[in-house]
Amino acid sequence: MYTELALALGLGAVVALVAVIFQKKSKIVLEAQDGWWGVGACPQEPEDDSIRPFKVETTSGEIEDLNLRLDQTRSFPSLEDSQFNYGFNSKYLEKVVSYWRNDFSWRKQVDKLNKYPHFKTKIEGIDIHYVHVKPKRLAEGTRAVPLMMVHGWPGSFYEFYGIIPLLTEPSSPDDITFEIICPSIPGYGFSEAPHKKGFDGLCAAHIFNKLMKRLGFDQYYVQGGDWGSLITTNMAQLEPNAVKGLHVNFAPPGKGALLMIMSLLFGRRFPKLFGFTEYDVKQLFPIMEKLVVDSIRETGYMHIQATKPDTAGRALNDSPVGLAAYILEKFSTWTDNEFKNLDDGGLERKFSLDDLLTNVMIYWTSRSIISSMRFYKENFSKGMNQLHAKLPVYVPTGVACFPNELKHSPKSWVEQKYYKLKTYTQMARGGHFAAMEEPQLLAEDVQNFVKIVEKSKKK
Ligand SMILES: *[C@@H]1O[C@H](CO)[C@@H](O)[C@H](O)[C@H]1NC(C)=O
């Protein structure tokens, strides 16, 4: 009798506790404070919020300086049979440098960059650069759906040049026509670098939400991979009423460390218990090889950038060849981990040298490699215990899971963070730089996701 009573009371207490925890959780709304990232103290007068057209430009001085540095590069032979296993292969690097020096035309690529309208506007003391593409035509009585697409490291807004026409001029009449905004993360490409410490994903998210408001959008969609996925996730957490839907092609597990550890320990034996599909098991195990060894082998850059970005970055800021090797090595391994066993890193299987070097040139001419690397330091220095990392996302979410992504995220993990997961697509092919590598596949998945969200809103 007494034990039953105690049991009932105990159960009641547990239920009440759980209810309190959940209630508390649902009440926590992530907030961001306005920052000031300009030089010196924040001025008293209100900020100039004008939007200025911007054009990418170059000079013969800039190109001559580049050529001089390319001519002065000191080559150093790779080990025999080492391919890309020791880093960027020197034989292939010579080929890239020769193409860069003799065949690549920065002027031509600048024209290509300017084929879409660029703008700059000041937010929180720094100039924010973005590309803004409106559809050329719209069906009678329809409106374009605004979508912000955010790049990561070591990418740029240029990653989206292949997908922009697919989304702004869709071929099927059933498709949604988008209006696309691609900003440069502060400190990347043509966005000014923050002058103060502490600029992380949440700060970028706050600024990008402000940018969308300034452009007159009350409601919009956001999409991102790499840092772009963290930033757009944070945007959705900060402004769940403005962000109508969130689409990511990178979803590192952000919650439930215990569940993750348990599922990694026992998931291979009891996949059903942890909601793993056969595919999940194939992608995740053996964990020693897939997670531990791979992580150690492939994340050295992250440790450098999260600790002393300004030191290694200085060399890259001086040497275009060093910069290209550092950036393009990632376009090899992150597109396909097996590419490290190829003499040319498989780079031209998925990309053209023109496109790859254009991305490098965006870093080179804007001198932004150091500030881009600092983003890792700001991200890791605050620790893993950030509020946004613990909070779920309540905005409708779509996840495109590319098979060669750095880390596989099973649906059962993704649901832990994204409570309103509308689509989770196992993509047919592609890796980390999905927008650039497989624009068609990514565009289809974005279309599918936004259609589902729009339909459910109409009801
Ligand atoms: C840093 O990035 C990781 C991976 O996206 C994320 O889980 C973590 O919350 C970030 N930390 C901060 C301070 O934004």
Automatic annotation (TrEMBL):
Against InterPro entries, the record matches this protein to: AB_hydrolase_fold (IPR029058), Epox_hydrolase-like (IPR000639), Epoxide_hydro_N (IPR010497), Epoxide_hydrolase (IPR016292)
Question: What domain of life does the UniProt record list for this protein's source?
Answer: Eukaryota
Note one Pfam family from the annotation. Answer: EHN
Cellular location(s): Endoplasmic reticulum membrane; Microsome membrane
Query: In terms of one coarse class, where is the protein primarily found?
Result: endoplasmic reticulum
Give the GO molecular function terms. cis-stilbene-oxide hydrolase activity
> What is one GO cellular-component annotation here?
endoplasmic reticulum membrane
User: Some GO term, biological process aspect, for this entry: which one?
Assistant: epoxide metabolic process
Write down the Gene3D superfamilies for this protein, in alphabetical order. alpha/beta hydrolase (3.40.50.1820)
Reaction catalysed by this enzyme: 1-(4-methoxyphenyl)-N-methyl-N-[(3-methyloxetan-3-yl)methyl]methanamine + H2O = 2-{[(4-methoxybenzyl)(methyl)amino]methyl}-2-methylpropane-1,3-diol; cis-stilbene oxide + H2O = (1R,2R)-hydrobenzoin
Q: What is its EC number?
A: 3.3.2.9
Catalytic residues (UniProt):
226, 376, 432
Give the keywords, sorted: Aromatic hydrocarbons catabolism, Endoplasmic reticulum, Hydrolase, Membrane
Looking at the record, the residues that make up the Epoxide hydrolase N-terminal domain are: 51-160
Membrane in keyword set: yes
Bilayer topology annotation: Single-pass membrane protein
User: Member of which family?
Assistant: Belongs to the peptidase S33 family.
- Write out the function statement from the record: Biotransformation enzyme that catalyzes the hydrolysis of arene and aliphatic epoxides to less reactive and more water soluble dihydrodiols by the trans addition of water.
State the name under which the record lists this protein: Epoxide hydrolase
